[in-house]
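Translate sequence into structure tokens.
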Amino acid sequence: MKRLILTIAVAVLSMTALQAQGWFRQPTPNDTLRSVVVLPDNSVVFQIYAPNAQRVSVSGDLPWDRPAIFTKEENGVWKGRIAKMDEGVFRYKFSVDGMSVYDPKAPNAGETSALLTVDKDSDSFFAMKNVPHGAVAERYYWSETLGSMRRLHVWTPAGYEKSSKKLPVLYLVHGGGDTDNSWPGVGAAGLILDNLMAEGKMEPMVVVMPNGTIEMPDGNFQGEVPIFAKDMITSIIPFIEDNYKVYTDQSHRAMAGLSMGGMETLEVTLNHPEMFSYVWVLSSSFAPGNKEVYEFERGRLKREAARYNKNFKELVFTQGGPSDIAYNNCKETLELFKAAGIKYEYHEVPGGHSWTAWRQNLYDLAQRLFK
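Result follows.
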């Protein structure tokens, strides 16, 4: 059966995702643009990068009697200001040469992307089927690391609410530029897990999908990796273990991440191997092109090889084949693990650096955990 999933999104791959795997392009003002800035007097500045546009406006639940007047700056950024707005929550959208444009720089921009699923017989492993369905909950927790509220999504299997049984936990991280909504959205994680449970192919577990994206003021995408890793240990895991019926020991804890999330997975698990038995790295590597990082990791892997071999029941690297933009970087990373004598598995699936591969990865790894 031939299957195809097409995802229409604001952006197929964000700049950070491409940079994370060694692809670079000429930066633009859009890379660090803040589309909405609330000033101390509650005036609001709207900004959008549209260098070829002739006219820009903004509309929505905004004061109709004092619209923002936009002017274009030399760098292609259009700016408009509304003075002293009342406190509240407001819907808004830009109009660029008469076309309505949802703010591509908004924190939830990726979550407004349209999704088109093409599945010939509607029986794929990610299809909506007539089976018992679990729940995907949106939860907020206080991050001690960032000093702010953060969001994550949690999948629990059908019947979890009525059960008193403790379950193991998989921490599943998205890629660069995406959010915690990506796995349950375009990743179809809930549907994949529901179907596997209904078919008796996986052990019951709780799957936590945290937000691995942290905006860095200097635009250094790699800087978010250690910050997220600290947040995982100090806030995310404690929040889950305080609020869900889960085991809290190493043998019942797993972590997996794709692309940037794979870098974050390596950062977390290599620093805390006694906390995880299962580690899956999807389409990722150590920091690409960073010789200093590679030399540090080369030394650490040699020093800690016995520790990693003792603690990791599964250490698996997988990619979407040679067309995966992480392919060469991952191969270089694996050479370091091999030279250090660390046991690992390596697999390839079709799909390149895309959700086609990562959905398949989740389908595969979920069937192997906690058995």
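Note: Residues 291-311 form the longest helix (21 residues).
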